[in-house]
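2024-03-11 09:14:02 INFO worker-7 job=invfold-0412 stage=load source=structure_tokens
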């Protein structure tokens, strides 16, 4: 079974799961890690425990190049699980919904390529869109 991990700086990951469940209902297989929320809470130990179990994971992180994404990449590499851990940085809600609701039988790479394209299309400067439609 494919599992999903939403990881962020602060409480963004929890908010993402909350919005996801509001729109789609309860979803199984979704784990949230919120870094730098509680003192002395090691994200690295939680990552090692989750990713080291030998399951397929799709991991959503908040910032490309951020400390959270770097920790996920480093941990997956150290554990030797880069083939079964798919890391997507710069998450947004349309992306997370599309991936989690996708057919679990479809290859993760295919699901992610399609979902990332759709998520990019959701990033729109609405004022400009309205101006263009009014012209």
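2024-03-11 09:14:09 INFO worker-7 stage=emit residues=135
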């Amino acid at each position: 079974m494919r599992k999903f991990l939403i990881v962020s700086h602060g409480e963004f990951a929890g908010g993402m799961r909350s919005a996801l469940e509001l729109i789609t209902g309860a979803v199984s297989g979704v784990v949230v890690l919120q870094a730098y929320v509680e003192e002395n809470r090691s994200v690295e130990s939680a990552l090692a425990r989750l990713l080291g179990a030998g399951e397929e994971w799709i991991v959503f992180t908040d910032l490309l190049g951020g400390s959270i994404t770097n920790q996920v990449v480093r941990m997956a590499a150290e554990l030797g699980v880069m083939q079964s851990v798919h890391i997507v940085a710069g998450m947004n809600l349309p992306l997370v919904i599309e991936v989690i609701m996708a057919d679990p039988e479809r290859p993760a790479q295919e699901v992610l390529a399609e979902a990332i394209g759709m998520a990019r299309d959701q990033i729109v400067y609405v004022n400009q869109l309205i101006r263009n439609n009014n012209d």
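2024-03-11 09:14:09 INFO worker-7 stage=report msg="The beta strands are 3-9, 30-35, 57-61, 85-89."
2024-03-11 09:14:10 INFO worker-7 job finished
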